Amino acid sequence: MAEDLVFYTNPMSRGRIARWMLEETGVPYRTELLTFGETMKAPDYLTVNPMGKVPAIRHGSTVVTECAAICAYLAETFPDAGLAPEASERGDYYRWMFFAAGPLEASVTLKALGFEIPSEQLRMAGCGSYGDVMGTLEKAVSRTPYIAGDRFTAADVYVGSHIGWGLGFGGIEKRQAFVDYFARISQREAYKRANVIDDEAARTMQAA
């Protein structure tokens, strides 16, 4: 089963989120490194993801794209890793994972592009205002040590990746709650391993 798991990525992409999640599962996988605008848009890969983007995984005959979906799929497919939610955690687990995939990513992207939603049109935008998103995210990471409660889950991989990336590149405000939350989760060995692997892959691709 493990050798059937193929990971399509580029180390300078959101694929780093999926890499972290894969490392958390502890399951062996094979990596296919793709280049932007070239192998990502090649016919072979477009049969995996017609969007021509990474990351994606192929597990046997099952293909999963989109980082949040990959995290959720891996957590449920490899339950021994303990990354899927318990019954009491499901509400917060799915709530904040989808919040990060929707309002958080959309509002941060709009801000990075220099676009501010006019106040009179906020109701048309599902993501709401950037300020409201930041305030909501701050409350989410301040209630409990991890996003779904007292233990680390796949939702922390996904939400935490957004926060870590945002803090590093300025897309997310440097609030203490965000800094403290990311400091907790970035101490995980799987996170460190994933960074080492992707950093080395990036150097190899740049040297090629």
Notes on the protein architecture:
It is a single chain. This protein is of the alpha+beta class and 208 residues long. Helices cover 51% and strands 8% of the residues. It folds into two domains: 2-82 and 190-207, Glutaredoxin (3-Layer(aba) Sandwich); 87-188, Up-down Bundle (Glutathione S-transferase Yfyf (Class Pi), Chain A, domain 2), CATH 1.20.1050.10. A four-stranded mixed β-sheet has the order 2-1-3-4, with helices on one face. α4 packs antiparallel against α5. It is globular and about 45 Å long. The mean pLDDT is 96.
- Count of DSSP strands: 4
Instruction: For the record, give the distance between the C-alpha atoms at the N and C termini, rounded to a whole number.
Output: 32 Å
- Which structural class do you get from the secondary structure elements? alpha+beta
Ranges with pLDDT <50 over ≥5 residues? none
CATH architecture of the largest domain, by name, is: Up-down Bundle
